[in-house]
């Protein structure tokens, strides 16, 4: 039985490998995805992928039927890996691939793991940029937890890529809702560990981010990951799972490998930066506290209650006076609540004004410093004010008028390139 199972795995593995060397597998209608080690990722119709050989250029039919010539990647055992499950994320993948190829001139392969919903237009654009396209249905979360993160575990299929591309030794898995600012080719030469990832400095002292994962591929590691995916628990997502698995063994990289764009939204210096922060002018003070609002007039005591209340004796009141007393006490409580609410409102307005004043002060004082920080950032992750495809540039500038100019610039860089190279970008991503 054990031998039969082993032979079955070998045969399925060979079938999967063959499918990725240019053969088409027809998807069975109404086939529901079930994560299973014996299922080849070709249970969705695979698009043409780059041939994992080193014999020179190859020709294959792209999904739309055109012939594309793909040059050989050469002997590099390393690859950048992206994943895409929706069109806007596919656009962001394309932008980063374009940067890797045409600005940063990477020497390594690029692989995109895609859900079957990604259009053939994007698949053709990926392959035209010499990227390998691998279709794969995302492993499910526990009982379909949180639809926002429904497909996030697709990135972890990257731990299996050496089974499809045997020459791969190490990969860098990157989320697509970020932008690569500097060459990352050097990370493949870091000391060999199962996993390396930047510290998630925005979450406190412990933990690393799952947006940047340097993985040394092996069957041993994939076996661990596969078991973790099959036994995932409620309310556990990619970052939770990875930190639980590798908390004691991961190599933690500096924060400049993945920095949130919120640093330029709030004009704040990240803790990882080793430069010096200009001190605040000691005479600077935020705006004067707003004057308190006048209290509402006191509640007048009914004449028949003045004596009993002053004597602290209300037990012998008539039925009529008991009603008056209840109304008086309710009115007094409501007045106190109004006073407290007014004070809290004034305090809130004051705090907001202080925060705005401090934001402006930091923006002026740290303008040059924040530019220096930006020059050190390797990858910038879009978190503040949503994703770049969700906001026009004018909306960003209006919503964050006191943010550093580089905050809006991050949106602009993405949107300009999206309008240039994404299939529906010309209409959708007008700056």
TrEMBL record:
Region of interest: Disordered: 271-313
Entry superkingdom: Eukaryota
PANTHER family in the cross-refs: GLYCOGENIN SUBFAMILY MEMBER
Biased composition (Pro residues): 289-301
Organism: Alectoria fallacina
Chain ranges passing through the membrane: none
Name used for this protein in its record: Nucleotide-diphospho-sugar transferase
Entry-linked SUPFAM superfamilies: Nucleotide-diphospho-sugar transferases
Annotated InterPro entries: GNT1/Glycosyltrans_8 (IPR050587), Nucleotide-diphossugar_trans (IPR029044)
């Amino acid at each position: 039985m054990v031998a039969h199972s082993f032979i079955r795995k070998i045969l399925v593995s060979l079938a999967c490998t063959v499918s990725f060397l240019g053969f088409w597998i027809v998807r069975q209608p109404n086939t529901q995805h079930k994560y299973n080690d014996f299922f080849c990722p070709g249970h969705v119709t695979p698009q043409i992928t780059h041939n994992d050989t080193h014999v020179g250029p190859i020709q294959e039919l792209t999904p739309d039927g055109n012939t594309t010539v793909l040059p050989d990647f050469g002997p590099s055992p390393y690859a950048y890996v992206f994943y895409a499950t929706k069109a806007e994320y596919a656009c962001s993948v394309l932008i980063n691939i374009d940067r890797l190829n045409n600005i940063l001139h990477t020497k390594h392969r690029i692989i995109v793991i895609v859900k079957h919903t990604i259009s053939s237009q994007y698949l053709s654009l990926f392959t035209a940029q010499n990227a390998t396209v691998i279709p794969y249905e995302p492993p499910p979360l526990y009982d379909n937890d949180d639809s926002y993160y429904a497909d996030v575990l697709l990135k972890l299929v990257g731990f299996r890529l050496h089974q499809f591309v045997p020459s791969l030794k190490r990969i860098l898995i990157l989320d697509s809702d970020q932008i690569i600012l500097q060459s990352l080719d050097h990370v493949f030469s870091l000391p060999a560990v199962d996993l390396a990832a930047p510290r998630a400095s925005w979450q406190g002292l412990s933990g690393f981010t799952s947006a940047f994962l340097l993985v040394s591929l092996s069957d041993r590691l994939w076996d661990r990951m596969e078991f973790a995916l099959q036994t995932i628990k409620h309310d556990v997502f990619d970052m939770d799972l990875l930190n639980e698995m590798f908390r004691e063994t991961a190599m933690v990289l500096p924060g400049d490998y993945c920095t949130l764009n919120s640093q330029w939204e709030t004009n704040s210096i990240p803790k990882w930066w080793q430069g010096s922060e200009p001190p605040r002018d000691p005479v600077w003070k935020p705006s004067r506290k707003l004057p308190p609002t006048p209290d509402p007039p006191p509640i007048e005591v009914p004449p028949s209650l003045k004596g009993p209340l002053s004597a602290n004796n209300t037990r012998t009141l008539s039925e009529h006076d008991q009603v008056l007393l209840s109304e008086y006490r309710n009115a007094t409580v409501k007045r106190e609540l109004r006073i407290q609410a007014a004070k809290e409102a004034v305090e809130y307005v004051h705090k907001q004004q202080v925060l705005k004043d401090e934001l402006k002060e930091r923006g002026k004082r740290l303008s040059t410093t924040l530019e220096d920080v930006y020059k050190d950032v390797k990858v910038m992750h879009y978190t503040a004010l949503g994703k770049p495809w969700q906001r026009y540039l004018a909306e960003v500038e209006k919503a964050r008028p006191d943010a550093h100019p580089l905050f809006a610039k991050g949106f602009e860089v993405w949107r300009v390139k999206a309008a240039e190279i994404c299939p529906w970008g010309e209409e959708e991503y007008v700056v």
